[in-house]
Amino acid sequence: xxxxVKNQMTSIIATVANDTPPFKSKILQKKYELTNEMxxxxxLLSDRVRTIYRIRALRDFGNVKANDxxxxxxxxxxxSHEGNCxxxxxxxxxxxxxxxxxxxxxxxx
Length: 109
Known about the structure:
The chain is 15% helix and 32% strand. By secondary structure, it is α/β, with parallel strands linked by helices.
């Protein structure tokens, strides 16, 4: 292995090992949590019964303040922790529905 290739490989390995750009990991701060308040709802497409949970904001973002209660989601895969998206009021999001970016879903907001 020639010296140039060896130096490039050492540099790449050091970059990855030190977690520096462009490999720096993005630490995602959660913006909501699932509460203990839950409902069971019937999925109209599959007739399956699903459990949905009310969400609570953990931090301020967009028009939402920390500790605000939101609507109901089935699991964290329904609502992104990034952007200003939110499920508010008594809205229900379940199954494979995914809310992201700046989308606002409200039921009686």
